[in-house]
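Suppose a classmate hands you a notebook page containing two proteins, each written out with its sequence and a corresponding row of structure tokens. How would you begin to make sense of it? This section walks through that situation. The first entry is reproduced here exactly as it would appear on such a page.
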Amino acid sequence: MQTYVALLYSIGLGEGRRLVMSDFKAMAEGLGFNNIRTLVSTGNLVFEARAGEISRLERRLEKAFEKTFGRHVDIIVRRAEDWLKLAASNPFPAESAEAGDQVAIRVMRQPVADEALSGLQARASDDEKVLLVDGDIWLVFSRERPSSRLLAAANHKRFGVGTSRNWNTVRRLAEMVGGAFPSPPVGEGGREAAG
């Protein structure tokens, strides 16, 4: 058996409807997955399944999601060891320790090419940062601006299928699959948007 992390792109099911994590977990159980765990209410799932192609697992989850909830949602899957590598490659450790909710990664289905990043870097404010690590986009958002242009600019149309998680969630998912990362400072807040 192999451990995987699955990330939903969006958990909105339509007007007035929101995905309940226990329903998502039950859907995964129906697929025969084991040791299923969820993290916060933004579509993060850790599970065990027979080792196989990532793209096949993504298709199975997406088809089951559409059948169960009546809406297609892109789902990104990573093997546990790949998730640990992703978390360990955080290019912004100081910023993450200071404000984990201001550091995010856009986890991509297909790696982003280096040359595609220049347009996104041009949208960053002076106190914001953008880096590409192993095909995923890492961002540091400004605390001074409540609405950064970066997250909106790192979209499907420009970069392909992907979904964003903040460092707090990335770290907690890594801990769930067996990684050890420093604990955040006491009183750490956090906001998360699957998208």
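The notebook's second entry, a different protein, reads as follows.
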Amino acid sequence: MTGGASRVVVVTGATGATGRATCAALLGQGHRVVAVGRDESSLGALGDELVGGDASRAELLDTRVCDLRDGDAVRALADDVVAACGRVDALFHLVGGWAGTDRFTDSTDEQWRELSGNLVDTLRHTTIALHDALLASGRGRVAIVSAAAAGAPTAGNAAYASAKAAAETWLRALADSFAAAEATPGSAAVTGVVKWIGSGRTATTPAALADWLVGLLDTDAAELNGRRVELWPTTA
């Protein structure tokens, strides 16, 4: 592998486009990957796609089924992963979701519950459950992918933009916890921001996000902690 030593990286939302690209990039660099998703069959397909017949890759990939909206399930998952791997060096939280409306007043409680559950609650549960392990790593990295909409909400995306903004606020609080650590400094929490994910001229591709995420592992924590990094193309 290139760069630093091998890391243990938990990738949540692993079966989405960005999750798949990130898992592949991490495995390509020789890192151990714990790929977490909600659907067992999708995780099985991901494992087949990433490993193929490569026995060495099979040893580096661990797929885990978990509903990250369930705090008890996430705590159990975290305990199991730390016991199996001995440590956790990074959490790339890539759980997504989107919903919009035609008018501000069309936003519903159901829409808010779905978006806040996927975008905020899953992040709360995973960062609390893995906080101490990431801190103990001394080189822990936590990253999320947010949206430009969080800073420029519209009437039609009020719930989505608000949930993204809440996730960013939560991650800044995590960054403050990392910054306050005295016994084992060196961990960082950072937010990458996109306009949208895809292949259009203003989009950020899953491959570009994966490259950015993997690069965080060997970037100094002081350069990352608490930062909000714009990741869309600069020439569109």
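A careful reader of the second entry would note: The helical segments are 17-28, 40-51, 55-60, 71-85, 109-137, 158-180, 206-216, 221-224.
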